[in-house]
Amino acid sequence: MAMIDPPEWNGIAELVFIAIYTLEVIVKVNARGFCVGRFTFLRDPCNWLDVMVIITGLLTLCVELDEAYVLSVLFRALKLITVYPGVRRTAGVFIQSVKRLAGVFVLMMFGLSILSLIGLQFFIGSLRNKCIMMPLPGNLTDISWATSYSGNNTGNMDFVFQQYTDNSANYFYRHGDADPLLCGNSSSAGVCPEDYSCLKAGGNPNYGITSFDMFGWSLLSLFRIMMQDFWENLLQLVLRATGKTSVIFFMLGFFPACFCLLSLVLAMVVVVFVEQDEDNVAEAKQKEEEFSQILEAIKKREEEEGQVSDGDDFTQKKDPAPHKKSSAAETMSHEQEQTQVSGRNPRLCSPCWYAFANLFLKWNCCGCWRRFKQCLQAFVMNPFFDLVIVLSIILNTVFMALEHYPMTSQFECMCALAELIFTGIFIVEIILRILAMDPYGYFKVDWNIYDFIIMTGSLLDLFLQVVDGLYMMGIFILLRVLRLGRWWPTFNLWMKTIWTSVKALKNLMFILFVMVFVSSMVAMHLFSKDYQVHVHRISSDNTLPRWHMCDFFHAFLIVVRILCGEWIETMWDCMVVSGQTKCLIFYFVVLIIGNLLVLNLFLALLLSSFCGSSHVPEEKRNNNVKIAINRIKKAMCGTRTWICRDKKAADSKKDKEGVALHVVTSDQNVGSSRVPIAETEDEFKKSENEKEEVKKQQCDIEGKITEVQQEAEDENHQGNTPEACCWDSCYRCCPFLGIDTSQGKGKVWSNFRRTCLLIEQHKYFEIFIIIIILLSSIALVFEDVHLQHRSVLHTALDTADQVFAFLFLLEMVIKWVALGLKKYFSSFWCWLDFVILAVSLMAIAAGMLGYTEMGAGLTLKTLRTLRPLRVLSRFQGSRVVLKVLSGTLRSLGKVLLLILVVWLLFNIIGVNLFAGKFHHCYNETSGKLFPETEVNNKTDCLFLAGAQWKTSYINFDNVAVAYLALLQVATFKGWLEIMYSAVDSRQVEDQPVYETNRYMYLYFISFIFFGCFFTFNVFIRVFIDALDLQKHKIFSLLNIFSFNFVLYFHLYFGGKHVFMTKDQQTFSRALKNLCSKPPVKVVPRPQNHCRAWLFDLVTHSLFEVFMVVLIFLNMVALMVETDNMSEKAEMILFWFHFVFIIIFLIEFLLKIIALGKQYFTSCWNILDFTVLAATILALFIADVAEKYFISPVAFPIFRVARVFRILHLFHFTRGIQRLLLAFVMSLPALLNICFLLFVLMFSYSIFGMFNFAFVKKEAMIDDMFNFETFGNSITCMFVITTRAGWDSMLIPFLNTLPDCDPDIENPGFTVRGNCVSPAVGIIFCTSYILLSLLLVLHLYIAVILEAFNPDESEQLSDDDLQMFYKTWRKFDPNASQVIQHSQLSDLCDSLRAPLRIPKANTVSLTHMDLPRLPGDKIHCLDVLIALTAEVFGEPGERDTLKAKMEEMFGSSSLSKDPRELVTSTQRRKQEEAAAMVIQRAYRKHHRHTEGGVALRNGASGV
């Protein structure tokens, strides 16, 4: 099936397989039956798949199905899932989880539809604006003159002009672009070159697919933004066509909304997965309990049978056998328990093997040898021996990483010699270990076996170096790095994560593999012919593109690319060659199902690692390497006791000094030191002494927290008493500093310090400083490339800079005096203020001396970009996020080091594979590569005129550049060009050939799977653990060293939110109460008959459904708008909208008459009124406002606002409401993180504007995206925040001679050159990518964690309870708290919303399963709990809700008295049904009996 051109014997093979499948079905039918019965053939859905396989197989043999042959391929491939029961069960669980995601998918589609309508209204037809060469006399570019030909009075000129503008030969194309250059007529839009005019003509970019001209394309564009696939290109097109102000829609509208939708989808997927896993665990426990009960029953039965058979002689002879069996079973179970405890499976071997092992594998020949072996064993087990081995592995890895291109012969000889030396060291290590432990003991350790295999392979590799074609590229030598997992727990965690995923998640991984395999085959059979026939539509030279589906391998690559998030470009080609509908269906099915499978695999891996870590023994000890390092520290620093005492004293001093960020605290040190240790290593165990040390550290932490709290209370009591100015050492060295503050000058100085302290603590002083910081930061915005042409602004900014510096200096002096130097310099924020002020003062001094634009002066000017960071210390929310961020960074240090080491392995492999091969011969005339037939290698290129031997910007010539290449592959930005260079590479310094080495794709796929997927999983695991430590560092000290997966997803439970301040937590809870509770009062029904009739009408559910249908129709009317509609179609749509306005106006009048002033008590009604008023206002004043006041772009907002009436639907969907409530609850945390992200973006934008303003314009840097002004700079940083386009933005920074000119003149500016430092550019881009990625990860975590808030069940309001009590009194006037069950139906019908269950309600009341008391009565509390669970509770929440309600009314007079329950409503219903069955059976038997008697009587009469 995977062959596009099957051989001749394929038909015979098809017949054989069909015969086998048919025989399987026949056997199953004979064994299980066909359809009658519970376990028959057709009752199993998987058997239907077998039938479809046979039917489609026979059809393919009889009829030519063409594309329908895909069904046969699909059914046969899916049959792989049904073969294995575990895979089949996992697939069923996955399908059930997908069903539970229906609500969030509805929310996502609704949100995308709203955004698509907004994009349709704002950007319709804008992407058709192109630069067209106009043949006007005198090279005029008067657009109004040109467009006059399009009128009706132009005769034949209309056709000629339209034909001219539609001709693509008249468009302006930039070099290397397939689409013409877009432009706009606004002031900030793209500008055309000379002799070109901006006109609306032709089609849209990317084969006419990228546009907002109709709802479908607009929806595709918004989905592309949400998935962040090449969306930077869409932003570039929109900004060039509509102006730079359109970035506001993306920055504040499209992108945040898409982020919210995507985060809610991820949150729901996580919630569903965890709930599904909990259900599976509960089901497994239930099966275990049932199995144990069966075993107990069997055991009791055997005991009873044994007691009964005591008196029988025959049975007495048979008694010992069961006892033997039971004893044997007990022995086997005991052995199994011992096996589980020991963790090893005993393997029974023959006695010959044990004799052989004792003779040849255990070397105990003589006493001298045993003494020598003991000495050798002491040497091998010495911690310093392991330390030497670890250092050797590290040095060996460093020498491998030093290989680069080009290398001198001396350097190659040095590397080869070092490799031989390290190989000898490791061989000696293995020999010593074997001699010390004997072969029998040596090979019992798994790591020793791995070491032996690696060294054997290394020796074989060294011997095969001389044989061409057999050299393994040092793969065994490189695998030595994995030996670090023996001593490095984090590395061991990564290795065990891979092993766990393969072992425990094999079913889910197999399903993912089947999905990729099936998708690849379907793509190949569905699109291969279309690519071969219609390739001329996407290729000018009729050659297949790199990404096609003509064979299985390339189809497999496209499916992998889709799963990596790169799908839009290949889908464009597919839609052109094969049709839009077919490609859209295929791509979206693969995209959605594939991403869900990958996400489920990621979560399953994360959950399994969490759960697996809980089974690791708690007793662990440091490994030999740590012991050796600790001994070295003791030797260098003194005794361990002195170190601990000195460290403890230093920590206590730090805690007593000021209000610092506390970047390093003792409790966090404890948490950070325990994260990966021995969670992964079963070989090492902790000693009892270290357990005592842990307890001591916990006691120290508790004591320290108590001290800090006591000091905080003391500070509150002290009021405005200043602390000591200097440190104690200063007073000892300079006694004159200690003056008497009770009299004389000392008293004056003390009063002055008190005054300064009052000023510093005053809120207006803080507000003033914040304003100054904001003004100084805003002043940096104006220092762009145009500043030198604005002398007045330049002078004003210089003066303002000096004023700001003076004010900040005054602030610092006041704080010095008020707080003292000791307390001032103990705060991280004060240190930041001090450094920024020092830089500003030095920059001002350098400017006065004339060194502003050179050397140190330019560096000091650049460092002023740190100025906006001062604002972070003034807002508590940003400080909270920074504190969490600093804590997670400390805990993630080992994981980041792990990522560097894992990537180093792939870097070394990449250097060995591709070093010196990412070079090519470039034709400077045509701008293309020379074919290999003309230029074969570098030597041919150097002797060819007009040719240049160039190197790719990103290559694998050394490990440092390889890290940058792998970072682009990991972020899926720029990775395609890297893979193209790899698959085209041949030998060193050879001209590349198209896909001559295409299986190099597998190298990058392996890196994505092992180097990205698993490392990111470990990263998330430790990241969540770090967040847990941040929350529980004070409230859960006793559980610091516990590792429970539930804690990681319940950071909100019963404690503070790590991303919120206390005020924000209070606001979040108030917001939740406001959003989750129903209206306080129910609108009363009017007394007037007419208004009462209208009230019943507008409050009826059918009326609400009718209005929802109209809103849908209104939404559809907005969707059908397209670009270039005819006047008739526009008129029809106008009257449609007018009719909808009239209907909504009538609805408003009906509701305002029926509800009166109560109409405005509902938020939905206020929204309806606002939308209706804005729409009517837009109808009447559109022409006037468009002409005099408002831009016409603003009016579509009123039309789109009507669509928000669809939010009425959310009243009926509880799952969506819960998701939205979770997002609203996380808003304060999101705002804190977004504020920090904005400050980071602002600072980097200023830095880029100062350093990269004149960089060479190429790749993504052009006239719209650059660093010349602050607006352009922050737009670039906004794009990079999403990891989009940073590879293209990095390319101009990497230019060196001759690709850039440092002496070229920039017209209109005094600055010369367009080169920048590549190192600065790389650090600039990579640092921002990593920091922004960490903050965005915090954003997703904040939303996902809020979705796990358990306190999400809605509760009844006080008015609802009062309404229930009043209604209950009507049926229970004696206040007996019970009523007859026959009155329950009338009671539920008499209640008001939300507790009302209208008649007929018999079935609903039966399912409520109310307890029945003696006399067929029911209790009021039972009814209230059941109604509340029916209205507000989800399935399975009845017990929790009952406990809450009983706790709520436990002390009230309404509490239920303890009574003996007779039955329940559901059980009574079952009893009645059973009684009816018994009665029918009895009547039938009675009739049959009477008939038989009558027949006998008749016979006897005859």
Automatic annotation (TrEMBL):
Start and end residues of each stretch annotated as Disordered: 302-344
One of the record's GO cellular component terms: voltage-gated sodium channel complex
Gene3D superfamilies tied to this protein: 1.10.287.70, EF-hand, iswi atpase, Voltage-gated potassium channels. Chain C
Start and end residues of each SCN5A-like C-terminal IQ motif domain: 1464-1489
Keyword Coiled coil recorded: no
Key words, A-Z: Cell membrane, Disulfide bond, Ion channel, Ion transport, Membrane, Repeat, Sodium, Sodium channel, Sodium transport, Transmembrane, Transmembrane helix, Transport, Voltage-gated channel
Pfam families according to UniProt: Ion_trans, IQ_SCN5A_C, Na_trans_assoc
Protein's membrane topology: Multi-pass membrane protein
Single biological process term from Gene Ontology: neuronal action potential
Residue spans crossing the bilayer: 12-31, 51-75, 101-124, 247-274, 384-402, 414-435, 471-488, 508-528, 584-607, 764-782, 802-821, 828-851, 895-915, 1001-1022, 1034-1053, 1101-1120, 1132-1150, 1162-1182, 1219-1247, 1319-1345
Name of protein: Sodium channel protein
